Amino acid sequence: MTALQKSVSSSLMGTLAASCLLLIALAVQGGAAVPVSDHCWLDKANFQPSYITNRTFMMAEEASFADNNTDVRLIGDKLYQGVNKRERCYLMKQVLNFTLEEVLLPKLERFQPYMQEVVSFLNGLSNKLRLCHIEGDDKHIQENVQNLKDTVKKLGESGEIKVIGELNLLFMYLRNACI
């Protein structure tokens, strides 16, 4: 064998050995190394229509004027505590669904003329993420989402206003986590 053939042969053997080790490790972990479904992503084009982006940010700005609690931030890096990067879209899906179901839909009559369009847009994103799930234990994510829910509940009406006032942050975090 020539030196080139030996080099290629040993390189292929090394790759084969590494692949076998990876497969063994995945088998031992029950495949847990791939915890997020393939449906946890959104197309960049979903966030590009400037009209709905402007509506979302304008509604958040309007609500933030009514937000008297400047000590609390709901949407931020704290949400990602203990969550790996591949799971962030799933986490943000959970936050999006909470925001829609518990805050925006019950307050549909407020913050007009923006609310209807923003809710429709966010509902569309939620539908696109409906198949996004974690194939393993999502307890750490659910705890982070529950902390957010508990904070909103503790703040009462001002917590709900704060959620609406942070829709711009939800928009940006959702975009960054899911595209």
Structural commentary:
- Helix content is 62%, strand content 0%.
- It has 7 helices and no strands.
- The longest helix has 26 residues, at 3-28.
- Mean pLDDT is 83; it is low at 4-35.
- The oligomeric state is single chain
Return the string of H and E elements. HHHHHHH
- pLDDT < 50 stretches: 4-35
Distance between the termini: 48 Å
Main sheet overview: none
Strand content: under 5%
Shape: globular
Number of strands: 0
Q: Roughly how many Å is the radius of gyration?
A: 22 Å
Secondary structure class reads mainly alpha
Task: State mean pLDDT (0 to 100 scale).
Answer: 83
The total count of helices amounts to 7
Q: Kindly state the percentage of residues in helix.
A: 55-70%
Short description:
This protein is an all-alpha fold. It has helices at 3-28, 50-65, 88-104, 115-128, 139-155, 157-165, 167-178.
Q: Helices, strands, pairings?
A:
Elements lengths: L2 H26 L21 H16 L22 H17 L10 H14 L10 H17 L1 H9 L1 H12 L1
Helix pairs in contact: 2-4, 2-6, 3-4, 3-5, 3-7, 5-6
Give me some keywords for this one.
mainly alpha, 179 residues, 7 helices
